[in-house]
Design brief:
heterodimer; A: about 110 residues; mainly beta; four-stranded antiparallel sheet; B: about 110 residues; seven-stranded mixed sheet
């Protein structure tokens, strides 16, 4: 069965410094992996996705993630944090049983300090 | 605007009351999903409908029922609300294609007192 673990429940960075949000996954198959962002009291917005093409995936707002099969990781990074990046981020693996249900991580809340 | 529409956006219920959360999508997607979001737990799947005419239980189905009314609409019903069902509920739609991705509604914030 697929699963996903977000290693940090909270991350704080200063504005202008790099962001690293960590995600490990477990899957018996070649997974599809996603990062979603949720700003306070808002819905979920897709940041980026990996679907077995390029291992380095670029998303919106300067975010990117690298799929590392040997480490079963899909960490989210951004070179320079902006105040508007403060939000909760979810790493998601797609079930491959044929129904493609999403399996969510528990989320990482990113705080950006001025 | 194209997307997933959820109603209502906010609701307060008394314990034991019933209600139905509505979800409609206009992207002609085959699959629809209901999730609940609770602090520190991410989103958990309640029910899903892989295609029109089918529904299946997810991870936390107890206390809920669903109806796939047609291809566009997928409703979630609470027959006898309990405080443990206080949560934010999200509907999503997608296609049964690897890596397709979900489109989410904006959520329904439900409080059961």
């Amino acid at each position: 069965a697929q699963s996903v673990t977000q290693l940090d429940s909270h991350v704080s960075v200063s504005e202008g410094t790099p962001v690293l949000l960590r995600c490990n996954y477990s899957s018996s198959y070649s997974p599809s992996l996603f990062w979603y962002v949720q700003h306070p009291n808002k819905g979920l917005q897709l940041l980026l996705k990996y679907t077995s093409a390029a291992t380095l995936v670029k998303g919106i707002n300067g975010f990117e993630a690298e799929f590392k099969k040997s480490e079963t990781s899909f960490h989210l990074t951004k070179p320079s944090a902006h105040m508007s990046d403060a939000a909760e981020y979810f790493c998601v693996v797609s079930d491959v049983s044929g129904t493609y249900k999403y399996i969510f991580g528990t989320g990482t809340r990113l705080k950006v300090l001025a | 605007n194209a997307g997933v529409t959820q109603t209502p956006k906010f609701q307060v219920l008394k314990t034991g009351q019933s209600m139905t959360l509505q979800c409609a999508q206009d992207m002609n997607h085959n699959s629809m999903y209901w999730y609940r979001q609770d602090p520190g737990m991410g989103l958990r799947l309640i029910y899903y409908s892989a295609s029109e005419g089918t529904t299946d239980k997810g991870e936390v189905p107890n206390g809920y029922n669903v109806s796939r009314l047609n291809k566009r609409e997928f409703s979630l019903r609470l027959e006898s609300a309990a405080p443990s069902q206080t949560s934010v509920y999200f509907c999503a739609s997608s296609e049964l294609v690897q890596g397709y991705g979900y489109t989410f509604g904006s959520g329904t914030r439900l409080t059961v007192v």
